[in-house]
Amino acid sequence: MVDSLRAKGATFVEELDEVPDEAIAIFSAHGVSEAVEETARHRKLPTIDATCPLVSKVHKAGRAYADKNYSVILIGHAGHPEVEGIRGRIPGMVHLVSSVADVAGLTIPDPERVAYVTQTTLSLDDTREIIQSLRSRFPKLEGPDVKNICYATQNRQVAARELASRSDLFIVLGASNSSNSNRLREIGVALAKPSYLIDDATAFDPAWLEGVDSVGVTAGASAPEELVQELIARLRELATIKLEILDGIIERVDFKLPDELLASIPQPTSSKQ
User: Is the same domain home to 223 and 159?
Assistant: First the structure.
């Protein structure tokens, strides 16, 4: 997906100081900290905030808990850009936990006033045990509605479990540093199926097909459909296949464009009869 956007003229940067003064800075779907937004404002950089609305809801919930003097716990993976953005949006200390073991090491000043938020790209399965452990330590724990979990992540994991259970070989298309793509591969591993996470069709090893009658193919939430089609084409080169698409949850969630883009779209004019 990054390559396709680069081909259209987009430039990807890690830090705001890499953005030239005359360029438009787009904040990614993962969100950014208030410090990054403030720096852009100070430089008078034109910006487009493309933060996912589900991530923005986590920012808002975390700030609301902090404003009530709650200790805020963030369930997520250290170093993930969404996690960095969330921590930079919630005032005060945010306690990051990535596992049940992390819960035991928490030092909370007031166990009666504790709340948690989660990285949106974790599924209910990813967070269930951690939340249970938190509730055991902090009986009055508060937290968000599960609808704040990214629907694309949850739906893919549900579908991947069904797909992997019916496959002799399980392939996930996605980046090696993608949190949700790695979770999909782990589902296949948990079902004792040979499971591989690959970038694209060129990484597929024909030797994996030895003794295999069925291949399950899925993709991470941000992997473009063309990668899936390229792998299917590669499999057709290696064997005669019968393609079956499993039924899944129909996603009907729509997000509006950022305000900056909506303002640039010509609005239809109405005429009186």
Answer: yes
Q: Is residue 211 part of a domain?
A: yes
SS (H, E, C) 137-174: HCCCCECCCHHHCCHHHHHHHHHHHHHHHCCCEEEEEC
Domain count, the chain: 3
- Residues 66 and 129 occupy one common structural domain: yes
- β-bridge mates for residue 74, sequence order: 96, 117
DSSP 78: T
Q: Is-contact 81 30, C-beta < 8 A? A: yes
Q: Which of 15, 82, 186, 251 is catalytic?
A: 82
Characterise 167 by phi-psi region: left (phi > 0), alpha (psi -120 to 50), beta (else).
Answer: beta
> Chunked in runs of 10, what are the mean pLDDT values of the chain (273 residues)?
89 93 91 93 93 92 96 94 94 94 95 94 83 95 76 85 96 89 93 97 97 96 90 96 88 81 74 50
Q: Residue 39 is inside which H or E element, if any?
A: helix 34-42
In this prediction the pTM is 0.77
The string of DSSP letters for 47-68 reads EEE---HHHHHHHHHHHHHHHT
Side-chain-side CA neighbours of 216 within 13 Å: the count stands at 27
CB 172 within 8 A of CB 196: yes
Per the annotation, the verdict on 162 as an active-site residue is no
What string of DSSP letters covers 198-247? ESSGGG--GGGGTT-S-EEEEE-TTS-HHHHHHHHHHHHHHS--------
- The span from the CA of 238 to the CA of 39, in Å, is 52
What's the pLDDT at 273? 47
The domain in which residue 213 lies consists of 151-238
Residue 10 to residue 23: CA distance in whole angstroms: 10
